[in-house]
Model the fold of this input.
Amino acid sequence: MNSRRYRSYGNVAYAPEFDGTAARRLAREEVLRPRPKVRPKQQVQARPRIQVRQQERVSVFAVVGFLAAGIFAALLLMSYVKLVTLSDEAVSLRSQLSELETKQVRLLAEYELAYDLKTIEETVTANGSMVKPQNGQIYTIELSEPDSVVRYEEKTPVAGVAGALNGVKEVFLTIVEYFR
Done:
């Protein structure tokens, strides 16, 4: 058994370094010199050998994929070039259209000034080559009903090969008339 006794107040024991209230004084050597750190010896490891592998073949799918991506990129650039040229042409055509519209307005004004319709009408009616229409010559067309066409044609049925050819011809003409 340990014969040392420690003072305690209650159930807590004091450390033997403390003398009542004052701490134990350290020796001068302990204060001035720090303790050297003990380092574990490091083991020298051998360098691992690098394993060189043989060159593998390039995948055909990778080559085809890169070629396809390059072709698509070139097509995209070409479409952008076409888009730019078309937009430039559209701008130039719009400006040309506006110039032509102003020219048309000017030419129409000159045309109306060149021919006076009232003078021409008076001249033609005065010499008798043109006569104003009489009330019996004026007809009013009623357009309230929709247009309809009724075609009356009597056909005699033709038997044999000639009838079949006429039927095919009629179908063909109907299709051509439809798409006109």
